[in-house]
Amino acid sequence: MRAQKSTVPPTIATATIAPVTISAVENRVQQLCWRYAERLPFHGWHHVSFVRAKAVDFATANGADPAVVEVAALVHDVNYLVLRNSPAAAGSELRRGLLADCGVPDEVADRIDDLIDEAEMANRGPHISLEAQALSDADTLFKSLPVTPVVLAHRYLEENDVSLRDLAHKIVGEQCDVHDSGYYFYNPQAAATYSRWATANLQLWRCIKEAVDDPTVVQLLDAVHAVDRTLAAS
User: Fold this and answer.
1) For the segment 116-162, what is each residue's pLDDT rounded down to a tens digit?
2) How crowded is residue 117: how many other Cβ atoms within 10 Å of its Cβ?
3) How far apart are CA 221 and CA 51, in angstroms?
4) pLDDT of residue 24
């Protein structure tokens, strides 16, 4: 797990980004998502646009800089274009280059890069900046949606070339302690509205984690995969 940086300031007071610059970042990220759509079945434009919209809402509610949060949401997952199954930090070089090309000042790009690391599930703690809270809550909500494990989980497996066991252990290992410690969502309204979804989702993944370690279930999954391979080869 990447350690949090102790130099991160609590908020950004004067880092507003011009709308034309935000539009330029949006266009670049959308182009990348569509160009590499086959590589991003989970973290594609559908994910980015959802997180972006909700992050701006949360930033407006908690007093963070909405423009900085919006741009951070747009570029928070470019690491998946660099390396499968990677932490956000793996996308730092691509992210900074993209932001520079779109006219984001270096000091603002530095802060955006830092807050993306700060907001990442594996890194975050109870006391993070308002900008990181807004981004984290939006990304966490996407994970907590009742439809995500049904409609999108298999896309995560495909995108990152991991097994169901790997994903279950990752989710339980990274998210359950955060949930049980009371800062799964930072925004009180988000916590009140979505905690029931989050609790049910994590309980499902706890059960999946148990199931994939059961020998009988392993045999079942092996049989399903054998059928899939046969169909793919025919």
Assistant:
1) 999 999 999 999 999 999 999 999 999 999 999 999 999 999 999 99
2) 21
3) 32
4) 98
